[in-house]
Amino acid sequence: MPGRFIVLEGGDGCGKTTQIQYLQHWLRQSGWLPPGRSLWLTKEPGGTELGRTLRSLLLDPQALGEALADQGELFLYGADRAQHVQTLLRPWLEQGDWVLCDRYVGSTVAYQGYGRGLDLGLIQQINDLATGGLEADLTLWLDVEVSQCWQRLQGRGQADRMEAAQGDFAHRVRRGFLDLAAQYPDSWVRIDGEGREAIVAQRIQQVVQRWLESKARLQSHPDNPEPG
C-alpha cells in the first residue's frame, strides 16, 4: 500500500482525540509527507456517514430504547469498520495518502473481547472480514492508568455508553491493550500517556520520527531490512 496508516488506540479518557490532533499538526510541519499527498484524520466508529449513524446507536444509551446485546454491539462495530475500510481507508492509502485513525481493530479486541468477554476467535473473523486484510502500519497505544482516565472522564460531564462502563470493565480493556502490544511488538508501541499534553505529544512525535526514519533507511537499503 503506497500510503501510511497510523492508528491511535487507548482506553476512554486517555487523551487520544487531543493527541491525534497534535500528531496531525506535527506531521504537516515535519516534511515527511510526500509532495502531492494528503493527510487524513478519521475515527472509528463514525468516520463515514453510515458510521456516524452507527456511532449514535453504539454510544448513546437512549438511542435504541433497549439494551444493546454484546454480540449486536460487536457486529455494529464490524459494519462500521467494513464501510470505513472500503469507502475511505483503502482508497486513500491506494492513492498514496497518509491516514491517522482514532481507533481500529485493536479497540474491538480490547473492548468486545477482553471487556465484554466475547470469543476472540469470532472477533478475529469479523475483523478479517471487515478489513479485508488492511492492517495499520503503526499503532500507538496511549496508556494511562484506569483511575486517571476516570478522573478525566468525570471532568467532562455526562459520559457516553462506553465511557460509563468503568471499574472492572476498564481494567479488562487495559489488559487487552497490554496483551496486544506484547503480541505485536513490531507494529504496536506503548506511549506513556501521563503528564501534560505537550509532553505526551513529544513522546508520540519521537516514536513516529524514529519509525519514519527506519522506513526511509529500509527504502534506501532494501537488501538490509530492519525490524518493524
UniProtKB/TrEMBL annotation:
Binding-site residues, ATP: 10-17
Record field: catalytic activity: dTMP + ATP = dTDP + ADP
E.C. number(s) listed in UniProt: 2.7.4.9
GO molecular function: ATP binding; dTMP kinase activity
Alphabetized UniProt keyword annotations: ATP-binding, Kinase, Nucleotide biosynthesis, Nucleotide-binding, Transferase
Name of the top EC class for this enzyme: transferase
Chain ranges of the Thymidylate kinase-like domain: 8-204
Gene Ontology, cellular component aspect: cytosol
InterPro entries the record matches: P-loop_NTPase, Thymidylate_kin-like_dom, Thymidylate_kin_CS, Thymidylate_kinase
Keyword Membrane applies: no
A GO BP annotation: dUDP biosynthetic process
Keyword Kinase: yes
Function, as annotated: Phosphorylation of dTMP to form dTDP in both de novo and salvage pathways of dTTP synthesis.
Membership in a protein family: Belongs to the thymidylate kinase family.
Protein name per Swiss-Prot or TrEMBL: Thymidylate kinase
Organism per entry: Prochlorothrix hollandica PCC 9006 = CALU 1027
Higher taxonomy: Bacteria, Bacillati, Cyanobacteriota, Cyanophyceae, Prochlorotrichales
